Amino acid sequence: QVQLVESGGGLVQAGDSLRLSCAASGRTFSIYAMGWFRQAPGKEREFVAHCTWSYGRTYYADSVKGRFTISKDNAKNTVYLQMNSLKPDDTAVYYCAATSGYSDALKEWQYDYWGQGTQVTVSS
Predict the structure, then answer these.
(1) Taking the CA of residue 93 as centre, how many other CA atoms within 13 Å lie in the half-sphere pointing to its CB?
(2) How far does the chain reach from its first CA to its final CA, in angstroms?
(3) pLDDT tens digits, residue range 75-114?
(4) How far apart are CA 1 and CA 106, in angstroms?
(5) Could you tell me which residues come within 8 angstroms of residue 40 by beta carbon, excluding any fewer than 6 positions away?
(6) Cα–Cα distance between 24 and 98 in angstroms, integer?
(7) From residue 121, how far is each of 3, 16, 31, 75, 117 by CA, in Å?
């Protein structure tokens, strides 16, 4: 089992920056990749960004490309999501996820473990 704990959410204004963290514990050696998803009120959860655990290969949703950066610190078993130029449309609960079965995982069903989520609210 892998446990994930997110932190760093909050209330910011449009144009501000925020950094989310996700600390993994447990069987972290089994992780192939980690990702960030988000769910806005009344909408389905959507993919935001992904990072392979070994090589750090990244992939982003078009809606955040150029504004968000996913990174990892293997020594700390932590993945980060740096969010710049935030927009009100970025308001959502952000979830960290980990997969032990896929090195390139862009779909929810590919992930085995999920954090509890952290709220990000961007005011206009």
Answers:
(1) 13
(2) 40
(3) 999 999 999 999 999 999 999 999 998 888 899 999 999 9
(4) 21
(5) 89, 91, 92
(6) 9
(7) 25, 11, 29, 30, 13
In this structure, are residues 20 and 80 in contact, taking their beta carbons and an 8 Å threshold? Answer: yes
48 token code pair: 């935001």
CA dihedral of residues 47, 2, 102, 46 (deg, nearest 10): -10
What pLDDT was estimated at residue 118?
97
Can you tell me whether residue 75 is helix, strand or coil?
A: helix
The Cα 90–Cα 100 span in angstroms is: 28
Q: Residue type for 5, please?
A: V
Residue 56's pLDDT is 84
Gap between the Cα atoms of 10 and 18, Å rounded = 8
Asked if residues 105 and 79 have their Cβ atoms less than 8 Å apart, the reply is no
- For the cut 90, the answer to whether the pLDDT of residue 119 exceeds it is yes
